[in-house]
Amino acid sequence: MFKKFLHQVPFFRFLIPLLIGIVLKINIPLLDINYSVLLCFLFVVAVFLKKNHPITTQIVGVAIFLFMLAIGVILVHIKQKNIYPLANKKMLFVATVIRNPEEKANTIKTILKIDLIRDSVGWVKPKTKVLAYVEKDTISRKFKIGDRFIAKAFINEVKHRNNPYSFNYKNYLKYKQIYYQVYLKSNAIQVIENARESKLILYFACARQKLLNIYKLNNIKGDEFAVLSALSLGFKTALSPDLKASFAASGAMHILAVSGLHVGIIYLIVSRLLLFLRNRKSGRVLKAFIIILVLIFYSLLTGFSSSVVRASIMFSFVCISKTFTRQISIYNTLSASAFVMLLYNPYLIMDVGFQLSYLAVLSIVFFQPKIYSFFEARNKLVDYLWQLISVSVAVQIATFPLTVYYFEQFPIYFILSNILIIPVVTILIYGAVLLFVFSFSGTISGLIARFLNFVTQILNDTIRFIENLPYAKLDSLVIDKIELVLLGFVILFLSFFIVSRKIRFFRTTLYFIILFIGYNILTLVICSKTTMFVVHDIPKHTAINLLNKDHCQLYTSLDKKTNSKEIEFFIAPLLQKSKVNNFVMYNNEQADFLGYYSLKNIRVINIYNSNILKYKYKNKLNIDYLILSNNIKIPITDLLKYFNFKQLVFDSSNHKYTIDRWTKECNKLNVNFYSIPEQGAFVRYL
Description:
five-stranded mixed β-sheet; alpha/beta
């Protein structure tokens, strides 16, 4: 069975070892590149073996596998090698805006390409990307792709705050080849050139803005404008957090990201318009060329986002396969498109969208026909609804583990959402195309716009209705990488059983289910015995966490109402993973000048103002950890008069210059210290 599949899907043979090589090198950066070169050499030797040798086929097969694995390792090695080291200091540089600026509460967020940077030798060309936050003013608000400027600022390495189980933003940016960040004040920037980037990219960026203006000119605004812009043009800046949360809770978040569904609709529109070209081979070639060209234009129009590019490449391969072959293997087409994309950028394998989109398509191709065959509908409307249901269920089968792993929630009414929403989205995309086509006519475009406004309002109301249904979503679903892998094997071997009907695959599925349950029980037992002392790394705040089994006491300057996002992002992951039932927050500044905490055999004191100097001391207090907060103006020598401690901890409520002063004192006095802003959260298991 599997040999037949490999024969029909040759690209799958190349894709799997390439994936293994990429993942190995990403997770083991020190993996020696020399072994990869050796494997490439063995491949060349295998190819030149005598063909009449009885084991030649097997040897060549193994050699191809090892060769592609080596290619995966080499591709990641090249990406890692091309990182230009930037010192964490103030530097003069010339940069170009390469990402559409996004307006935040106090800054403008964008991505810069550093064209030139001045070091001790002179001007160099690092050609590296930097995440930039620019002070919001009239100049930065006008930034657009292609603008070039000179600036002087601190370029810092992106750091992981190391809060237990929290999202690793550093890795997220690393997989996008972004290793540094910079904050720019408006008076430190001098624009030297406008619209320097590729004229083609700028042309399509301007074209997208003109299409967005068509919506505004036709009185489409508010949430309707935000949703229509995201659906048709991939412009998501106008989406409010509440609206995003509503789509996520209802299981319809995927429609806001221009990807397979949207590109598929564009593909169908163009394909149907060109049906007259299908009779001759030259016509079919011309049709394929036009469709691929339109998909490229649409990718550029939507900002050339990775999800659109990915979907466009997949549909381009489908189009080529239909043109030049009679029998199309969708598995081979998908493998070929993934193979090409990973050759271009191996880090795409770590992209959530890449993983979910390919798994979703594979799941539809494999499971949907089998689910659809369970029920035969004679009525066309019932048949259409059953198709939507079977597709929705098929998608969830394969993507469920990843959805839970990344988003820690699962929408209960995803079937209802897709039945109600996908037809509406299809209508909206067709309507948006018509609006753009007839925008020259005020009367026609006005009628289409009113219709689009009405349908989009219905869509938004439907989303909110589903969100407010009882038990609309399962929250706090936390699984780790091991559980993710085990669930993946359950689905894989279940698929083998469905295809082959062989009992051994069913038994293997049961084994992995038992392993999954056993691992969960083991995790619960470990969590029930875990005791931790954590000082979290939360910018401008103190957060001391004492976790004892399923009880947690947090002493912090955070407020539940005003700092709810910080609590959810930096602290909640630890509470969820540790299965905490009792969580209590205390204001750590209620006392006069310090807080005293104890857990098991450790004693901790947190000093947050200088009032301690008003008190006389007789005997030193013996403690384990002394935490300094709020930039207190106390010399380390004075602290040594009050306390005997094992380690000083500088939390994130302190400024850099204060920590630098303390660091110099500690080094002179030979005092053991830990700087949370520099080293991440302070974690001790007890």
